[in-house]
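stuck on this:

***
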Amino acid sequence: MMVLTPPPLGGQLRARTKRLEDNKADILNLNDMLYKYFSYNENSLSLLVNMELWASQPEKFNDPFDSSFSVNGSEAVRKYLQQKAICCLSETKKNILMWAHYANNHTGFCVGYSKQKLNATGLLEEVNYVDDFPEFSIESLVSNDSKNVRPPERVRLLTTKYIDWQYEREWRLILELNHGTCQNETIYGKLLKIPSDFVNSVNFGCKMPRKNMATIRKILKDLPIQFIEMAMSNDSFELIETLQGQE
């Protein structure tokens, strides 16, 4: 992974801010947005610089049941899962737990992407949350149907999670792996290049240092996107959005 050294930005971030709820015309269509949470580090900055997303192999996920339900110990299914990489996104940017878990205790950031444009890639699938342990047809999972690029039973295997995870409101980009033979792959996953117009906003965690906000704004200064700060509400357990003005 490229080591990125952002240029120093002198002075404080000069941003005029205004509350989103007082300026409805500036609010993006949230129904057309999916979000990715990031910790602030050289890897996440590199993804911003190169307009990329990282997709991990399912076995690297924090949920041990994710995409690994028992299917009679099928070797064919195991190999199928090894050929997949998944990038996880969410419908929400305001979940306090997700900011804590995936954005380094609210010191990171969250990028908003166009759901419509991601869906047009043919890679996007919605996660289904269930109470009962799912059953799968081994025949459907291992069949080679040349007429169906993405058989429904295989998609279900990759998009079924226990209901305890439903607060994440997850969607997934499902990618094919070529066993590390491509330049953008490793044994752990794959980089996905995305057009810059897929990115609509960057949301800064409520505990993110100002100098880190400034670095991200510098990286993305040529893109017509919104920069939004998250702040703690004074009277409820929720995050309040504030739209940053132009520098």
About this structure: The longest helix spans residues 210-219. The radius of gyration is 19 Å. The first strand starts at residue 17 and ends at 19.
